Amino acid sequence: MLGGVARRPIAAIAPHELLDVLKRAERRGHHETAVRLRAFAGRVFGYGFATLRTEKNPADILRGALTVPRVKHHAAIVQPKEVGELPRRR
């Protein structure tokens, strides 16, 4: 999924290369994965910046560049009596 970006030094990775990897995941329908990958890349680049391995954090530049997945709400049992009846419904 990360392609050739995973094997390169972080100082050599440009924002457009990271965006290409994230958009590839997004095109497959993995919107949440793409958002999490960007967040993880931000932490990796942040650590690289703090330890002088890179001078930039391309993940910060890409904030807002991805489609945010829609939140799906599901029904919930809120009455304690109904929770107890749940195993007997089968």
Looking at how many chains there are and whether they match, the oligomeric state comes to single chain
Percentage of residues assigned to helices: 40-55%
Structural class: mainly alpha
Q: Give the ordered list of helices and strands.
A: HHHH
What would you call the shape?
elongated
Radius of gyration in whole Å, from Cα?
20 Å
Portion in strands: under 5%
Total number of helices: 4
Question: What is the strand tally?
Answer: 0
Poorly predicted spans: none
* Span of the ends, CA to CA: 41 Å
Average predicted local confidence, pLDDT:
87
Largest sheet: none
Structural overview:
The chain is an all-alpha fold. It has 4 helices and no strands. The relative contact order is 0.15. The chain has helices at residues 15-27, 31-50, 58-61, 80-85. Helix 1 (15-27) packs antiparallel against helix 2. The longest helix is centred in the middle third of the chain and has 20 residues, at 31-50. The mean pLDDT is 87.
Could you provide a short overview of the structure?
The protein has about 90 residues and is mainly alpha-helical.
Key words describing this protein structure:
90 residues; mainly alpha; 4 helices; elongated
SSE layout and pairings?
Blueprint: H1 15-27, H2 31-50, H3 58-61, H4 80-85
